[in-house]
Amino acid sequence: MAPNVIIRRAAPADLPAILRLIRQVVPLMNASGNFQWTEEYPNAAIFEKDIAQNYLWVTYLGDQLAGVAALTQDQDAEYADADWDAAEPALVTHRLAVAPAAHGKGVAQALLAQAEQEARALGLRTLRVDTNSENAATQRLFPKLGYRFAGEIQLAFRPGLRFFCYEKQLA
Prior knowledge:
With about 170 residues, the protein is of the alpha+beta class. The protein has one domain: Aminopeptidase (3-Layer(aba) Sandwich), CATH 3.40.630.30. The protein has 4 helices and 7 strands, in the order βααβββαβαββ. The protein has helices spanning about 15-30, 45-50, 105-120, 135-145; strands spanning about 5-10, 55-60, 65-70, 90-100, 125-130, 150-155, 165-170. It has a 7-stranded mixed β-sheet with strand order 1-2-3-4-5-7-6.
């Protein structure tokens, strides 16, 4: 990744750039058959809540927002259907997005590396993430970064979609 990379917690001032990034990403996702996100989700209210709770991280390449991810301990109830111990505390990556202009520049990897740092800082040994079954890019990325496939679930708030779960244990 380029030396002018900044990864930090998101601030309210980042919200307009985050929403522009999401407006760029959603049509590309939908065009590839991935309907995990829509014009309604994720939205400003969700990102405002993530920022207020110190969950949201941003990556900038120079002065351009390149990526965003929420790093939380929130696990959807349906996570109990995956091949892992859902009762085990974990850091979970949600709402991971990379600007189209930043694809291939290591932005997602940097955000997932930040998730590892956050997990360690919180005393957690487990990382989790889910992705739409139609998101081929993340299905290639997660195993490359040491995540194991942990099964398929459906999420009540996204009916009709299938999600693949991935987990990584930290040493």
